[in-house]
Amino acid sequence: MLPQLESDYREFHAHPELSMQETWTAGRIEEHLRELDLEPQRFGGTGVVAVVENGDGPVVAYRADTDGLPIHEDTGLEYASTARGTLADGTETPVMHGCGHDTHITVALGIARLLTSNREAWSGTVIMIFQPGEETGEGALAMLEDGLWEKLPKPQAVYGQHVWPNLAGQVSLSAGTAMAMSDCLRVTVRGKQAHGSQPEAAIDPIVLAAFMVTRLQTVVSREISAREAVVVTVATIRGGLKENIIPDSAEFTMNIRTFSEEVRADVLAAIERIIYAEAEASGAPKPSIEEMYRFPRCYNSPQHAEELESVFASAIGEDNVALTEPATGSEDVGRFGDSIGVPYVYWFFGAYSEEKMATPGGPAGNHSPFFAPDEVAKTLSTGVRTGIAAILHELQR
């Protein structure tokens, strides 16, 4: 199957699409599924689902995400993306599969091929979910709101996995909390516009935003216990159109990662207090704080995760499997299980050669313009092996 997997991977890598705009991607996935005599269904616009039925038995779901990112690819690969897309605000942007979702699509299609070509080896029902919009937290909700579990058999467990910058052939998973909650905020700072030569007539929102950004760095270092894992990142800031005009507003966006609801509430309260207080100290109008989106905590069933540790050890070797601490990244895969109260497990598989792992500073991580597996065959093979192993284990429960 490897030649087919590598061909699929290159094709999907070269044709990324932005979140909730995965029109070509969804259509191509459907073509592959129809070749396997499956009947794909649409949920949430560009979400695709195939139900693989094979007699009586348990029902298990497997999920892969499909969207790309607004990144200009700089990998130098012959099949590198030259795709362009349009963001929600109308801005045109290059698009890249900088988080590895092309790998996830390819692995899921490989699993579907194994299931349909080896029906004598299993019985039950497997629901293959190709989810859009993971990067913006929209996709899982859109599919659920479109009646996913009202129209399809409800699984007894949900599985999924993510490629990341680790050694190809190796897998890691967490028992319990696996990934953080995430809150994304947009802050609009309001001031008073004036000529750049007359700052006394203005309330400068750029200076004010700078004070806010600086003070927000103290939330983690001075307000939260060092025993808690918290990340507060200001990732974009913009304001003004000309060098000699003090504008009337500025804007910045934030991303917050936490692992408990209590700490999350404390962090968000501190952020709000600082932003409002800095505005008041500057005599500025009250800023607005808008929630753009949020991700729930990803919580792996401890029982299922511990079982999979042994299952994966049998599939790819004990030395290639490790239980790890939670990742500070976030995922919406858990919504599929949480929405119907069933357990789920989400794990990680590596993408790089030993040579690449030894690169000074480490290999490129997810969301980098340089991210791409250099051990493609081994990466895809590991993903398919662990994915099918998890599914077959659940079907035999």
UniProtKB/TrEMBL annotation:
Record protein name field: Amidohydrolase
Pfam families the record matches: M20_dimer, Peptidase_M20
Instruction: Name the InterPro entries for this protein.
Output: Amidohydrolase, Bact_exopeptidase_dim_dom, Peptidase_M20, Peptidase_M20_dimer
Entries under SUPFAM superfamilies matching the protein: Bacterial exopeptidase dimerisation domain, Zn-dependent exopeptidases
Q: Which organism is it from?
A: Brevibacterium otitidis
The Peptidase M20 dimerisation domain covers which part of the protein?
185-280
